[in-house]
Specification:
This is Type VI secretion system baseplate subunit TssE. It holds the Pfam family GPW_gp25. The chain has one domain: Roll (Nuclear Transport Factor 2, Chain: A), CATH 3.10.450.40. The termini are far apart. Helices cover 28% and strands 22% of the residues. With 155 residues, it is α+β, with helices and mostly antiparallel strands. Strand 1 and strand 2 form a beta hairpin. It is globular and about 40 Å long. The chain has a 4-stranded antiparallel beta sheet, covered by helices on one side. A two-stranded antiparallel sheet has the order 1-2. The chain has 4 helices and 6 strands, in the order H-E-E-H-H-H-E-E-E-E.
Length: 155
């Protein structure tokens, strides 16, 4: 089995999204941040934008967001299927709808098991304009138990 590495794109640029230098991050965190960056890229692409991969990305978010809360579970299913298909480092993914904090925003927790066994939790916020922000929940002090990457710890 090969060691987990950042993507070729990140290695060429020598940084992660947000201009975080590659060399300032531990190898284990490099892998996690690389997955996070790719999840965000996938979720911010719209299905049909790439002619050779018509199902890469999410559907038109305008119609999804207008139909909330009825469309939330369909969106979570679409997110799960798309991320498992286009992020090859994911072994398992469970998405949980979180309580709405801001009007017009959809909050989700992504419980991920990476290939190789490591578990990590990400949070995602879908804004009213359809932009998706993905964040690493352990970095935001969401957890109450060390080693348990679960978003129940609160903020």
């Amino acid at each position: 089995m090969t060691e987990p590495n950042p993507s070729l794109y990140e290695m060429l640029l020598q940084n992660f999204d947000g201009e975080l230098d590659l060399h300032r991050v531990s190898e284990q965190d490099q892998h996690t941040l690389s997955v996070l960056d790719n999840l965000q890229r996938i979720l911010n692409c719209r299905a049909g934008a790439l002619s050779h991969l018509p199902d890469y990305g999410l559907p038109d978010m305008g119609t999804v967001l207008q139909g909330l809360p009825a469309t939330a579970h369909t969106l979570m299913k679409t997110m799960t299927d798309t991320l498992l298909k286009y992020e090859p480092r994911l072994a398992e993914l469970a998405i949980e709808l979180l309580p709405q904090v801001l009007p017009g925003h959809l909050e989700c927790a992504l419980d991920v098991q990476l290939k190789g066994g490591r578990r990590v939790s990400f949070g995602s916020t879908v804004g009213p304009e359809g932009k998706v922000l993905v964040r690493h929940l352990t970095r935001q002090n969401y957890f109450s138990t060390p080693g348990m990457d679960h978003p129940r710890g609160g903020r």
